[in-house]
Specification:
Blueprint: H1 4-14, H2 17-26, H3 30-39, H4 44-57, H5 61-70, H6 74-90, H7 94-114, H8 118-149, H9 157-173, H10 184-197, H11 201-211, H12 224-235, H13 276-289
Length: about 290
């Protein structure tokens, strides 16, 4: 008869807290639900699980993921994050995709610390590194995508140049396992244009040679004439790079080529280069840890 107040009184007098909680959940009376679980913590898991489902139905996916995590439903929390990541990639919201992958990497790292099964640990470790890599790539690719699609950007050319180099070297190391929506052609195109501005003529010409073997990215097909003109112009320039742009290895003091066959490592001693993007993720992780 929809006399919920009377029903709640009867349930409480009977000591049927589970039925009382279910009634509050059905009515979406979440303030009352959380008040109940503060008094009866044994029902917290079911309450947060239902709250997570309610949030997901109302498109509040980040809050839903946190609710599933509080409910101890780790798989549901990961599934929500994975769905968020896929949606962000499909909608070219690469900053969000990087953030969600970073959250996923934290989930796998937490699970890694809580399991003793060697096979499971190996799988979780692999997933952790994959999500960490995707977080870095999508974060950097957002700027490259904006540079090639927007009429104006406020990011300095040198930063864009190093981001493009970082992405290209990472993609080369993946040996064909290119993440969804990341375009090697778009990355080479952006790197080539910026290299021309910075007088990295050799690198720009190398990017043009690489683009010849790649397929035109969607919505860059109308730039074919521009790319051909750029190729002709770079052929007329000296085949050299500005010395100030060459990456310096602080371990062996070796100046590396801008297009490095070893990727983001020193071609002389093999010491990895620590990029600003990686420093940002390390700092964020430290702050969240404390």
């Amino acid at each position: 008869m929809k006399q919920y107040t009377y029903a709640a009184d009867v349930y409480e007098k009977m000591g049927d807290i589970k039925s009382l909680l279910d009634m509050r959940i059905i009515l979406s009376q979440w303030d009352e639900v959380f008040a109940l679980i503060r008094r009866y913590p044994a029902f917290a898991s079911d309450a947060y699980y239902n709250y997570g489902q309610y949030l997901a139905e109302h498109d509040r996916f980040v809050d839903a993921q946190r609710a599933f995590h509080k409910a101890g439903r780790v798989n549901e929390a990961r599934n929500v994050l994975q769905a968020l990541t896929n949606n962000a990639v499909n909608e070219t919201r690469f900053n969000d995709a990087g953030y969600y992958n970073w959250l996923l990497s934290k989930e796998y790292l937490l699970a890694l610390s809580e399991t003793l099964n060697d096979d499971l640990r190996a799988d979780l470790f692999k997933r952790y590194h994959r999500c960490s890599l995707l977080a870095e790539l999508y974060y950097a690719y957002q700027y490259i995508y904006e540079y090639t699609t927007e009429p104006f950007v406020d990011t300095p050319p040198l930063i864009l140049f190093n981001m493009a180099r970082f992405i290209y070297h990472k993609l080369v190391n993946l040996a064909g396992d290119i993440p969804a929506a990341l375009s090697k052609f778009r990355t080479c195109y952006a790197a080539c244009k910026i290299a021309k501005i910075l007088n990295a003529n050799k690198f720009s010409r190398q990017m043009i040679y690489l683009m010849r073997d790649l397929t035109f990215t969607h919505n860059l097909g109308n730039k074919r004439m521009e790319i051909e003109e750029l190729a002709l112009e770079m052929e007329a320039r000296t085949f050299s790079d500005d010395h100030d742009l060459l990456p310096l290895c602080y371990r062996c003091s070796h100046h590396n080529e801008l297009l490095n066959t070893r990727g983001n490592e020193c071609s002389s001693c093999g010491s990895p280069f620590v990029n600003f993007i990686e420093i940002c993720f390390i700092v964020c992780g430290i702050f969240l840890f404390f």
